[in-house]
Amino acid sequence: MAASDPHPALAAARARGPLPPPPPLSLEEVRAIALAAGADDAGWVSLDHPDLAEEVPHVLSAMPGARSLVAIVLRMHPENVRSPRRNVANLEFHRTGHEVDEVAARIAQALFERGHRAMNPPMAFPMDMGSFPGRSWIVSHKRVAQAAQLGTMGLHRNLIHPRFGSFVLLGTVLTDAEPTEAPAALGYNPCIDCRLCEVACPVGAIEPGGGFRFSACYDHNYREFMSGFADFVEDVVESRDRQDFRDRVPLHEAVTTWQGLAYKPSYKAAYCVAVCPAGDDVLGGFVHDRTGHVQRVLKPLTEREETIYVVAGSDAEAHVRRRFPHKRVQRVRSSLRATRPREFFGALPLIFQRGPATGWAATFHFDLSGPEAVRGTVRIDDGQLQVTPGELIGTADLLVRVDARLWLAIVSGRRSPVWALLRRRLRITGDRRLLTRFAACFPR
Predict the structure, then answer these.
(1) Which of 149, 195, 217, 431 could bond 183 through an S-S bridge, CB–CB 3.0 to 4.6 Å?
(2) Which of 173, 172, 148, 174 is nearest to 161 (CA)?
(3) What is the pLDDT of residues 152-188, one digit of tens each?
(4) 242-265 residue pLDDT tens
(5) Nearest alpha carbon to residue 160 among 75, 69, 46, 227
(6) CA–CA separation, 301 and 375 (whole Å)
(7) What's the pTM?
(8) Is 326 exposed, middle or buried (0-12, 13-18, 19+ CB in 10 A)?
(9) Which residue spans within 100-156 are E strands per DSSP?
(10) Parallel, antiparallel, or unpaired: how do β-strands 159-160 and 361-369 relate?
(11) Cis peptide leading into residue 126 (ω within 30°)
């Protein structure tokens, strides 16, 4: 071919002319594509949905030009998830999770073949761990599925599908296709308010008043994921010798860490999903034999002897010792700590403990200076927390002035507040005893 001859592929593309716009898709067409790809249920929702505002920047960062989200549901086998032998339950989580990714990939390909850009972010891992401990996922599958009317978030903060109940895993496909209609409203909340999830949770993450202790669930149930591995490495580094390491990390935990690396990390509990009777497929057994459901499903989990991972001084530790004295308590570090000054105020609600915050009230002002300066107000009032980043509101009972980076070192335990006070690098105005009370509400 002479140098002046056009590239044959370029010549052919020019000859074909511009691509015509792809035909619009209806909700039923998209749902049919998803079901043909292997989903058990699917929905479609515009990225403009008001409940998805928080998702928009993260979705667009992964796929510029995305306009809508296809939500998919795959059901799990209930008896596997309910098993007191948690390796059986985790096998089901892993099997279904892998299938979710495969189905989402097939849906993205089918949309592409119809002329629409589409991509499938991971169901879970791999995540963008460079952002850890901040947000490392692209899209909240639960939030999208709820907006697409595939279910409602229950007390346990998992999506409850009207047919499959809590025994589902979720995925999302991002696409530039625009929905021609909004999904029909679900019409009712599948959660039946039985509160079995509250009873089953070994760390009391689901509070009687409906609140949720995020850190309690994270520190225990996700122990083998992000935080546990970091703890394991720190124990290796800090151990004086083999015996000291064995005292810190029992043999079964070392082997569990190996298994998580060689195979996949496992959830420690997820009992809230296991005991949930909601959903048409499983509700009948509970309605007609509630006592049997409690005996067969709930009691084997609550009576199970196991290690429960908690942060010292946390509400979770108090709950385990009071409610499940037969379970072993192991204190661990919490990795739910800000690594950048701008994350400090966002991390506080995740690790707040109501127990130490009950029976008193105070307003804290934080004026964190330096190249990464941030400021904000924290109000603790009889077990309730209010955080207002960016503003110093009202009259402070305690004012903290310090370099932002030094403050992170103090709250993480890498620097002593006494050291910082003596060198006048930490300045406190007000009752200094409140600082101790504040620290007790956010144990590390």
Answers:
(1) 149
(2) 148
(3) 999 999 999 999 999 999 999 999 999 988 899 998 9
(4) 999 999 999 999 999 999 999 999
(5) 75
(6) 44
(7) 0.91
(8) exposed
(9) 118-119, 152-153
(10) unpaired
(11) yes
pLDDT exceeds cutoff 80 at 335: no
Sign of CA dihedral 240, 242, 243, 244: positive
pLDDT of residue 95: 97
CA distance 167 to 195: 17
Give the residue among 213, 183, 222, 224 at the shortest CA–CA distance from 315. Answer: 213
Question: Which residue, 85, 356, 314, is CA-closest to 219?
Answer: 314
366, β-bridge pairs: 376, 400
What was the pLDDT predicted at 4?
A: 61
- The C-alpha atoms of residue 384 and residue 362 are separated, in whole angstroms, by 11
Question: Which tokens hold the place of 208?
Answer: 């009687």
- Of 255, 215, 254, 216, the residue nearest 232 (C-alpha): 254
> Sign of the C-alpha dihedral, residues 228, 230, 232, 234?
negative
Mapped onto helix, strand or coil, the DSSP state of residue 27 is helix
* C-alpha span between 302 and 316 (Å, rounded): 15
Q: Phi-psi category of 61—alpha, beta or left, where left has phi over 0 and alpha has psi -120 to 50?
A: alpha
Give dist(CA 345, CA 376) in Å, integer: 7
Q: Look at residue 20 and give its three-state secondary structure.
A: coil
Cα 345–Cα 444–Cα 208 angle in degrees, nearest 5: 80
Cα-based distances in Å from 322 to 169, 277, 312:
32, 26, 15
Segments in 118-225 forming alpha helices (H): 141-147, 196-200, 214-221
